[in-house]
Amino acid sequence: MHRIGFLVNPYAGMGGAVGLKGTDGLLQEAKKRGAVPLAPARAVAALRPLRDPDVHFLTCSGAMGEDEMKEAGITTYSVEYAAPEMTGADDTRNACRIFLGHAVDAIVFCGGDGTARDVYDIVGTRVPVLGIPAGVKMYSGVFAITPAAAAEILTTSGEVAVRDAEVVDVDEEAYRQGTLRTTLYGYARTPYITEMVAGTKQVFEQPDEERAKAEIAGFISEVIDGTPEMLTILGPGTTTEKIAEMLGIKKTLLGFDAVRGRRLIAADLNEKGILSYLNAEQQSRLIISPIGAQGFVLGRGTQQISADAIRKIGIGNIIVVATPHKLSQTPVLYIDTGDPALNAAFGDHIRVISGYRIAQRKRIYLPKH
Fold first, then answer.
1. Is the pTM of this model over 0.70?
2. Domain 2-192 is of which CATH architecture?
3. How many CB atoms lie within 10 A of CB 28?
4. What is the pLDDT of residue 28?
């Protein structure tokens, strides 16, 4: 019988939709802004396909694991760590110590980069670890692409390859100021199936990249000029920043801005702010660029664009932009809106604008579950 340690950071990702770009140290502010827990539902989604009598889970009480086990219909588990009502990093570390003491074969956790770091602090390379993505950013390489992909990895028959994967964390204070600053903490062992575990985010900055961004920006600015009254939501990144520059607008590098024609309407919007603008519009569009190397179009670092916002915009009004070099390093794209039916509605390919009136069709990963 396989023994798997399982824990949930119930507060992971709560800062994303409300525009805090992270939850570390800002849980109360996130709650004040109306944030709701996301991690428990994502943990349940990963657990549901795992009702296997040959797997025994060791978990924590309450929302740190036991509640999700019950909701998913898992019966082969034992509670080995009594979690307090308000959990924190120390509880993650303490639970991992107990799991290791019970000689688990692997540890599965639901959270973000901060949770991954806390797990790594105790586990190191002693047993494989796998993350169910629920945080705001998740730049580490230990996360499955989606909760469904995590389930698929864990239910794969036979031997699953294990690789060394980076555990990194982002300086959230710098991130909120528009600067991406990451720290490498080490390398964990992670079960891996091609296309089901994300790589570490890469930032591409080369002369050809700048020329390609300018070509993309030139084309998209023409599109916007052709429909100047349509509300445009510009997503984060340097490619969309170049589009804003072409429009004469100062872009929030790591946030979402609302634009009408060549006018900035609102900057660094959270989910509530985006929906308030979308609800007042008959038609709108989203311009967004995938995360370099990881390939996420929606789902990581973009929680402000919720499933409700995507339905308001309409899949046909989502314009994906990326340079040819970024696309060459990104063999497949990922959509993780939190709604499996909406993910599937994107189909198996998406058009990506990669130059002036040039587009590529890129494959979208579709989980089996």
1. no
2. 3-Layer(aba) Sandwich (3.40)
3. 8
4. 52
